[in-house]
Design brief:
Elements (H helix, E strand, L loop, with lengths): L3 H19 L5 H33 L5 H23 L6 H23 L1 H8 L2 H17 L13 H8 L1
Helix pairs in contact: 1-2, 1-4, 1-6, 2-3, 2-6, 3-4, 3-7
The chain binds fe (ii) ion.
Fe (ii) ion (FE2) binds next to α3 and α4.
Length: 167
């Protein structure tokens, strides 16, 4: 069976590794080659989680505080989206670009740690293997429907409204 937790964790590993690759890039072309796919996947991953994962956590989570976990996630996703958007406003390799990418890295690192400590364990303890499989299939369909970030909603969401609409 497929597993939503594995798919999310796989992206988390991929993000950490690609932020690390930025330190190995020595030309603007190399920086762009690492950053551009990373920026697209950060936005795609955030919306995939908001579409597939958090609505179910909100309804079924009972091993933690799903409302609090979700509010934190949406707030963090907004901060990551803001930094990705800001990086897109600057030429790769400029000091403004490095600053925005550094912000994305810091915000994303904090977010992944918190999600792996709170939301993912709550989900694991509160749902079944069948649900994890069902959401994994929805996740794969979401990525298939948004190749290279096409059609991904990169706008920020109000955390309270999101919780209310999805509870
Ligand atoms: Fe997330």
């Amino acid at each position: 069976m497929a597993d939503i937790i594995e798919l999310i964790y796989e992206d988390h590993d991929w993000f950490r590794r690609h932020f690390f690759y930025l330190d190995d890039a020595s030309t603007d072309e190399e920086l762009a080659a690492v950053w551009e796919p990373l920026a697209i996947r950060l936005d795609t991953h955030a919306e995939a989680e908001e579409t597939v994962f958090y609505p179910v956590l909100l309804k079924q989570g009972r091993a933690g505080d799903p409302e609090d976990e979700t509010e934190d996630a949406i707030t963090d996703h907004n901060a990551i989206r803001d930094a990705v958007r800001e990086a897109g406003n600057h030429r790769v390799g400029t000091s403004e670009w490095f600053e925005a990418v550094g912000k994305a890295r810091t915000e994303n690192g904090k977010h992944l740690d918190e999600e792996e400590r709170e939301a993912l364990p709550d989900f694991i303890k509160s749902t079944s293997a069948e649900m994890r499989h069902e959401l994994a299939m929805k996740w794969l369909r979401f990525y298939h429907q948004h190749p290279a970030g096409k059609g991904v909603d990169t706008s920020d969401k109000d955390p309270d409204d999101y919780v209310e609409e999805n509870s």
